[in-house]
């Protein structure tokens, strides 16, 4: 993220790259845990969450110290505040990935979902994996156009989310009650990861360019 | 909240009281919407959410302006950052209350939950109502002991949350598939409101006293 931040924010930039990478990894591995299903992958995500939390803590500490420096020629304060919120958004995405992994682990040795749900959840995971790659890319190449694509694709993710409910209510559904409960939870976790991804994309656009072309600037401070 | 903040933060204090009051109202009215059920109450919560979002936006704008003032004798920057996060937490509690109301409205004219779920959800709502009152009280009387009670009671809320799953999986369950889906969602929304309440309580303790006796200070910057 050094291409976006000035020298003063260099350490924060490096930590932001680390947290984005760790969260991208957590999202992809939780998808692997869910869809194969794979217990080792689930445990990997659960074990990896602490590092994400620590990175967030470190980034926030550094942002607060920068705010305290009171140097009028320094980084725009709104950028520092947005960075703080972006780190928190990443941390929440990591938590949601961990919740997915925990659901897989709880269900074990049963599969968390019945076979007829696989296609739908596979497609949702494809969106999340693509979104993760785009977010990581945005931090290193300042490509704010990518943000528009993340926002557009999230609508499709929301539609797939709605379809999981239709599936559970249909005659096609062969799952147990526990699997229905897990379907609702897992679909929600994934939908929330997507929402946070949109939030993160908007914040990166704001940090890079100083504005969000799709929203009232005040709304940029929304934490989802 | 003027008893907690200095003169410089007076406007922020008043807005924080307003947002806490509006969120407390939203939590209680969403409970009424769910348990009676009551469509007008649901609509009231849905309509009232915009005001909460606007208050959060205003509080954040003011905090950023205060951060920009760079006055070394002014409010501790960590307090300003914590206030920003507290406002975001309240806003999220408002959103979750709106999600509860939207589920009630979607289910109408069917009740969102079958009769056997009423007792459990009623008890969960009692906890949320009590927590709301305590949060509002904390902001006006600096009573940080109340925070401990909020934290303890949240464990009980989590237990009730687990019991909703047991109920859905039991022979006692008479609900439709849609009602099972709504049970999982509603229980999660309520559990998340409780989690955010704990977060909010910890932040108020930090703002009042400068420390959280139960956690590493770095973790205080967690946004849930």
UniProtKB/TrEMBL annotation, chains A, B:
Question: What function does the entry list?
Answer: Plays a role in the regulation of phosphate uptake.
Tell me the GO BP annotations in alphabetical order: intracellular phosphate ion homeostasis; negative regulation of phosphate metabolic process; phosphate ion transport
Q: Which organism is it from?
A: Bifidobacterium actinocoloniiforme DSM 22766
Protein name from the UniProt record: Phosphate-specific transport system accessory protein PhoU
What Pfam families does the entry give?
PhoU
- Self-association or partners: how does it assemble? Homodimer.
Question: Which compartment or compartments is the protein found in?
Answer: Cytoplasm
Question: Where does the UniProt annotation place the signal sequence?
Answer: none
Q: What is its main location?
A: cytoplasm
- A single Gene Ontology CC term: cytoplasm
| Ranges where the PhoU domain occurs | 18-104, 123-204
Task: Indicate the transmembrane segments per the record.
Answer: none
Q: Which family does it belong to?
A: Belongs to the PhoU family.
Q: Which domain of life is it from?
A: Bacteria
Keywords in alphabetical order: Cytoplasm, Phosphate transport, Transport
